Amino acid sequence: MDSQSKRKLNAREIAARVRDEIAAGTFGPGDRLPGARAYAKKLGVALMTVQNAYAQLQEEGLIEGRTGSGTYVRDPAPGEQAPREAAQRLTELQAEVARVSTELAGLVERVKQLEAVVGPVKEEPGA
């Protein structure tokens, strides 16, 4: 998505995009990410939006900021999970959460339909 798009990306969406790129191997351990200012301009979003996305990825342990140098994909310590695998797992987890949320919304709708037919269930005292 570029600055020509109608709807601007939010920080969560930008973080997901970068996470996907790490998971796909586009960015590997030690690779420098695009500068926040240039990336914000490319995406047509505020600088703070990209900074918030990078902060989210840093909290997830995928990237690190180096003062005066930029933002890099973390190089894992020996025995530590590599950012690519961590990003893949986070992406899978997000997909599972989205699937469960969709199922839950469907269940809520079914309960509403049942209540419309039989009326709301009254709680028993002490329950």
From TrEMBL:
Record's keyword terms, sorted: Coiled coil, DNA-binding, Transcription, Transcription regulation
InterPro entries, per the entry: Bact_HTH_transcr_reg, Tscrpt_reg_HTH_GntR, WH-like_DNA-bd_sf, WH_DNA-bd_sf
SUPFAM superfamilies: Winged helix' DNA-binding domain
Coiled coil location: 90-117
Region Disordered, residue ranges: 66-86
Protein name from the UniProt record: GntR family transcriptional regulator
Source lineage: Bacteria, Bacillati, Actinomycetota, Actinomycetes, Kitasatosporales
Entry annotated with the keyword Transcription: yes
Domain HTH gntR-type residues, every copy: 8-76
Gene3D superfamilies, per database record: Winged helix-like DNA-binding domain superfamily/Winged helix DNA-binding domain
Alphabetical list of PANTHER family matching this protein: GNTR-FAMILY TRANSCRIPTIONAL REGULATOR, MANNOSYL-D-GLYCERATE TRANSPORT/METABOLISM SYSTEM REPRESSOR MNGR-RELATED
Pfam assignment, any one: GntR
